[in-house]
Amino acid sequence: MGRIKDIVMERQGSPEKRAEVIEKQLQGISEELKPLLQEWLDTGKESDDTEYSGYSLNSLMRDYDMMFTGAVLTLDWLIREPEAAKKALKEGIR
Fold it and tell me: Given a cut of 60, is residue 41 above it in pLDDT?
């Protein structure tokens, strides 16, 4: 624990306490998103068009002005609770 927090603080400018929360959330993401997270941690790549319930990392970052971690956590929500997540996105969640 700590590597993700440090990267989130460095790349996204998150305060330490917020970065700790993000780190804990990211550690529990769905298996299919773990390679995407690992690539970001290793290389900083923030681009992927794979769709989950009609949304992709790129579309969330572009259309909802999300940072990488917010977009990944939203994709995780779309995988776990697709109907609730899609409804919230359509109603304007950011």
Answer: yes
